[in-house]
Design brief:
By secondary structure, this protein is α/β, with parallel strands linked by helices. The protein has helices at about 5-20, 35-45, 65-75, 80-90, 95-100, 125-130, 135-145, 180-195, 205-210, 215-220, 240-245, 250-265; strands spanning about 105-110, 115-120, 160-165, 200-205, 225, 230-235. Bound molecules: uracil (URA).
Length: about 270
């Protein structure tokens, strides 16, 4: 069928598909899905009749594994960062994994004194398998550079180590739900224990929920707390700063507080 789309509409449609995560051609030839039902009907196997209700096992009686307990056990068994990455990759209970292209584990120097914990990968992070590489990540790099920190730095005092609460991209960049956060929390806690930074930065509400058990970043930001057994500074997420440039003032104050605290700790 000839396309009647204008180049403008075709481009808009492509951008829309990319936004939804359809970023790869998976076949050389196009598939006309409108023709498929007819063919499918010819080859379809008749569905099995439903068994009588009484014969179906009651789901409540089938005890599934507790995802948070399974995460706790898998995370505790990981003795180094490579083992933790492998344990995350093998963890089967988070549905987000199915829709993601890559596991996004971390970036930066594991010897860094500062560990940044973001929320979840977006499209760019999912494609590259690294946290904070999109627009928000570029802003994060500029913010860190302003206080002399860099993810690529070799010296631990100048370096940062970056991860997220969620290692898989949620569909359409939706917020992770409470269950997903709870099942990933043991992995984040183990991640912090293995890196053993002097301080953690909790970027945004999801990170505060995982680390502090509370949201409300406008109230929490800039106040030192404790998360994962470390001094923790909640900060506005760089994606929020891109949408709300006026909040950069507070973010700058928080960066200075981080720098001062690191200096005090001799870190
Ligand atoms: N936002 C996050 O919280 N993490 C990323 O890795 C990218 C964007």
């Amino acid at each position: 069928m000839e396309s009647t789309l204008s180049p403008h509409d075709a481009l808009a449609s492509l951008i829309w598909q990319i936004e939804l995560g359809a970023t790869e051609a998976i076949g050389d030839a196009p598939v006309n899905r409108y023709e498929l039902p007819e063919k499918a009907a010819k080859t379809a196997v008749a569905p099995k009749a439903e068994p009588p209700r009484a014969a179906v096992a009651a789901p409540a009686l089938v005890a599934g594994p507790d995802p948070a307990a399974a995460a706790q056990a898998a995370a505790a068994a990981a003795m180094d960062l490579e083992a933790l990455r492998a344990a995350l990759g093998a963890y089967p209970h988070c549905e987000l994994k199915r829709g993601a292209r890559n596991l996004v584990f971390s970036d930066g120097n594991p010897a860094a004194r500062v560990m940044i914990i973001g929320e979840a990968p977006g499209r760019d992070e999912d494609q590259q398998g690294k946290p904070f590489v999109g627009r928000a990540g570029q802003l994060l790099d500029r913010m860190l550079a302003a206080i002399g920190l860099m993810r690529g730095a070799e010296a631990p005092q100048e370096a940062v180590y970056i991860t997220n609460v969620l290692p898989w991209r949620p569909p359409q960049n939706r917020d992770p739900n409470a269950e997903e956060i709870a099942m990933m929390r043991p992995f984040v806690a183990r991640h912090v224990a293995l890196v053993n930074p002097a301080a953690v930065v909790l970027m945004g509400n999801i990170s505060c929920e995982a680390g502090l058990g509370q949201r409300g970043i406008t109230r929490l930001r800039g106040r030192w707390a404790e998360a994962y057994g470390k001094p923790a500074l909640p900060m506005f997420h760089p994606a929020y700063l891109l949408r709300t440039p006026a909040a950069k003032r507070e973010a700058w104050a928080d960066l200075l507080a981080l720098k001062a605290r690191l200096r005090e700790m001799g870190a």
